[in-house]
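Just scan my protein:

——
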Amino acid sequence: MLVLGLETSTGQSSVALVGPDGVVAAASLGVPRRHSEFLAPAIRFCLDQAGVGVDRVTGVAVGLGPGLYTGLRVGIATAQAFSAARDLPVVGLSGLDVLAFQVRHVRRLICTIIDARRGELFWALYRPVPGGVQRETELRVGAPAELAAELQAAGGDCVVIGDGLTRARDDLRRVGIEVQDTFDAQPDAAHLAALAVPRFEREETTRPTDLLPIYLRQADAKIGWETRGRLHGGEAS
């Protein structure tokens, strides 16, 4: 099994090839709004570094968000085109889940947060379980003060990971939450693909055409449908 991972839901784009024994090749770019220019060359780079052809790829994993609309659109479209052309199964995962998976070895409550712009955050809470993490809340969007109130109610120490930490830190401190072992990170394709491998093994996959971005704000969903209409040469309704 060789899974191609594509993660473009934040300002960082990344591509990775992951097999049963771990990461085979990976590439990332921390330049916002360059996803479309990066993905195709990065896929070719990873294939060349691994010394394999596209025929060796057995599945595609892609980040579904929540995140930046343009990045999500580019990543999902690339995953759909690559997998449809080769009749490959697809797994779509939330970047918040991927962030939690990146710190799955901790033994405390995990809070993953992504900067949602417009003064808001995307977040979710997780508990470590054998072999991974388990989400304890729905994916949420709201102001940093709302996140602080939720963590205060949850009590206890927690690990906070994600690029939204910068926006949330002052509100967390304001309510007396001591956050230990904090991480400022973004979901990456290597962890995304690794998290997806068991799903491919269990055949918990989907068709490329069924991939849908995760929108937690009505305004983002509206933008998505309007743009989709224009891309198809019609009027969005």
Observations:
- Residues 66 and 172 are 22 Å apart (CA to CA).
